[in-house]
């Protein structure tokens, strides 16, 4: 869990509208907080697919799975099992 | 007539017909009309005053917009995808006293943001309405003005396009005719309603008595579900189609019963058209061309001619005249390149508080598009780039010189250049080349861009350079910048 979270936080720091001053809780909505937009999310999904060599079927592209750090970490864990 | 009066008519003749749908909510025309009245009753005592509209895409946005129309006031929709500082610039440059805001946007911007407004109308998630503060201050606005629309690539000094009831209705009716929209049509609105294209979906669907299914493009599972739930007309910019086509099997399944895929905002590449056709060979594809200054649309390419004239913008929509003129504003023969000009009831009143820009845009009743074009012998038109240096980024029209000025003024740099670069989904994105001074930090520049520019303008990369080779004329142009960028990349 810890490692995937670190990778995601580093990605968001570099690639999203988040900067080092942004406070982000694990359950915060990334879209509501303006950290990621639709294109940003698609790029994030490409990044995850490549990084963890997994395919993410489109029926998993839901807010539950991709709108928070917790959701993202959980779905990666599920798909890499 | 006003757009909202068409809704009132549908409410009388077919009150049970669905007008708007969003997630599990669906609003028939009768109820839509009542809700518009409820919101309008809060502001009926204002006369021809500007109301900023701060609302995300959704049922509430459309209800509030129509309520401003019904109360005979002027709507100024604020593009919510912009950053707070961009939105402030729009508000500051236009002296707007009144605002209508949804619960979601109120909590995003916070109490302090609204202190400067003398009237604040608040719309909670349950679609009721509350006035938090109200004071009528009379304003001296153009009598024809109904809507101020910002172009989607607005940065720096925003230019508000002033549109009238006649503009909105004329363009909506032309679109209804071209797309053959009927009360049976259900349109998907997944693009922003705050700009010309999204706004035209609202107007043409509601005048025709059809319905609008409102969704987004962020979580694609719900986008595909929305399309699958009975959409007959899908509207998207080219990048919308690029994103959805990334998932061909979902596209095929959900677009099975879509009769028409309309596009605008940029050229549909043949590759996109071919992929759509492969997945649904019965779907009609109609690319359209236009500008915010023309309310939305100016021309369309009939689907029968897609293969024969794929690189054209087709012919004018009904009610619009197009022509190509030389530098002395005289029409040129077909096959000769000049500036594309347009005339019709959809052409803007002018730019808000900017007579100089207006007098350059509208000359002798013709609107100058700034697009270079040729007329073909069959009466179709072909675009050949811009007269000025505007570029398309993610299907938004962007002035790179303005973006450079904006970044340059507020950062420790000696010079900044915007380079359009290819992007898998956006078509074009931008990178920056920066001539640094002793205090330049790349990370600080990235942070600035993320905070102050809309997402599609955040640079993919920032490259430090020593100097930029100027073009022969000694001027900075997109061409000299792209050449400079290619040289830098070749030596990296």
What does this structure look like?
The complex is a heterodimer of chains A (81) and B (492). Chain A is built from 4 helices and no strands. Chain A is mainly alpha-helical and 81 residues long. Chain A has one domain: Non-ribosomal Peptide Synthetase Peptidyl Carrier Protein, Chain A (Orthogonal Bundle). Chain B has 492 residues and is of the alpha/beta class. Chain B has 2 domains: 3-375, Rossmann fold (3-Layer(aba) Sandwich); 391-490, 2-Layer Sandwich (GMP Synthetase, Chain A, domain 3), CATH 3.30.300.30. Chain B has 15 helices and 27 strands. In chain B, the strands form 6 sheets. In chain B, strands 2-1-11-10-12-13-14-15-16 form a 9-stranded mixed beta sheet. A 5-stranded mixed beta sheet of chain B has the order 4-3-5-6-7. In chain B, helix 14 (442-452) links the parallel strand 26 (427-435) and strand 27. The longest helix of chain B has 15 residues, at 29-43. The termini of chain B are far apart. The model of chain B has no long low-confidence stretch (mean pLDDT 93). Classes of the chains: A mainly alpha (81), B alpha/beta (492). Chain A binds chain B through residues 16-20, 31-32, 34, 37-42, 58-63, 66-67, and chain B through 81, 104, 108, 216-222, 224, 239, 243, 246-247, 250, 394, 425-426, 447, 450-451, 455-456, 458. Chain B: Residues 9-352 form the AMP-dependent synthetase/ligase domain.
Mean pLDDT of chain B: 93
- What's the number of domains of chain B? 2
Query: What portion of the residues of chain A fall into strands of 2 or more residues?
Result: under 5%
The fraction of residues assigned to DSSP E strands of chain B is 25-35%
- What overall form of chain A do the CA principal axes indicate? globular
Relative helix content of chain B: 25-40%
CATH topology call of the largest domain in chain B: Rossmann fold
Termini separation of chain B comes to 61 Å
The major β-sheet of chain B equals: 9 strands, mixed
Radius of gyration of chain A: 12 Å
- Uncertain spans of chain A, ≥5 residues at pLDDT below 50? none
Number of helices of chain A: 4
User: Which geometry of chain B do the CA atoms define?
Assistant: globular
């Amino acid at each position: 869990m810890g490692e995937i979270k670190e990778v995601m936080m580093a990605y968001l720091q570099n690639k999203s509208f988040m900067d080092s001053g942004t406070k982000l809780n694990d359950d915060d909505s990334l879209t509501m907080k303006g950290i990621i937009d639709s294109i940003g999310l698609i790029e994030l999904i490409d990044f995850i697919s490549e990084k963890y060599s997994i395919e993410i079927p489109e029926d998993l592209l839901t807010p539950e799975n991709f709108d928070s750090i917790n959701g993202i970490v959980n779905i990666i864990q599920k798909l890499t099992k | 007539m006003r757009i909202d009066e068409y809704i009132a008519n549908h409410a009388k003749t077919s009150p049970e017909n669905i007008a708007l749908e969003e997630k599990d909510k669906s609003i028939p025309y009768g109820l839509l009309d009542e809700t518009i009245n409820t919101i309008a009753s809060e502001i009926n005592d204002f006369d021809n005053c500007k109301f900023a509209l701060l609302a995300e895409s959704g049922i509430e946005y459309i209800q509030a917009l129509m309520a401003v129309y019904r109360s005979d006031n002027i709507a100024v929709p604020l593009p919510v995808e912009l950053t707070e500082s961009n939105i402030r610039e729009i508000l500051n440059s236009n002296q707007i006293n009144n605002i209508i805001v949804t619960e979601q946007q109120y909590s995003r911007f916070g109490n302090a943001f609204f202190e400067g407004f003398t009237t604040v109308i608040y719309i909670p998630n349950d679609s009721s309405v509350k006035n938090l503060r109200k004071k009528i201050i009379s304003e001296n606005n153009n009598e024809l003005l109904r809507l101020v629309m910002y172009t989607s690539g607005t940065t720096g000094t925003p230019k508000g396009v002033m549109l009238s009831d006649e503009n909105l209705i004329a363009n909506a009716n032309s679109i209804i005719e071209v797309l053959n929209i009927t009360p049976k049509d259900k349109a998907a609105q997944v693009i922003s309603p705050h700009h010309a294209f999204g706004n035209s979906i609202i107007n043409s669907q509601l005048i025709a008595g059809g319905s609008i299914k409102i969704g987004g493009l962020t979580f694609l599972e719900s986008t595909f579900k929305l399309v699958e739930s009975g959409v007959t007309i899908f509207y998207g910019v080219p990048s919308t189609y690029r994103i959805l086509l990334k998932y061909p099997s979902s596209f095929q399944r959900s677009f099975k019963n879509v009769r028409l895929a309309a596009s605008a905002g940029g050229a549909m590449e043949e590759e996109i058209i071919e992929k759509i056709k492969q997945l649904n060979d019965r779907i009609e594809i109609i690319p359209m061309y236009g500008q915010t200054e023309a309310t939305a649309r100016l021309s369309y390419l009939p689907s029968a001619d897609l293969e024969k004239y794929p690189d054209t913008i087709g012919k004018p929509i009904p009610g619009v005249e197009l022509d190509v003129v030389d530098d002395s504003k005289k029409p040129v023969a077909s096959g000769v390149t000049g500036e594309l000009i347009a005339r019709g009831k959809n052409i803007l009143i002018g730019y808000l508080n900017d007579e100089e820009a207006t007098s350059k845009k509208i000359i002798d009743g013709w609107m100058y598009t700034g697009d270079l074009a040729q007329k073909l012998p069959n009466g179709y038109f072909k675009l050949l780039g811009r007269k000025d240096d505007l570029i398309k980024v993610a299907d938004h029209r962007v002035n790179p010189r303005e973006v450079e000025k904006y970044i340059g003024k507020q950062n420790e740099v000696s010079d900044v250049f915007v380079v359009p670069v290819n992007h898998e989904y956006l078509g074009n994105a931008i990178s920056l080349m920066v001539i640094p001074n002793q205090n330049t930090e790349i990370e600080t520049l990235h942070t600035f861009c993320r905070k102050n520019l809309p997402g599609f303008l955040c640079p993919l990369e920032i490259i430090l350079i020593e100097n930029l080779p100027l073009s022969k004329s000694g001027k900075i142009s997109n061409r000299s910048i792209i050449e400079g960028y290619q040289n830098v990349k070749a030596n990296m």
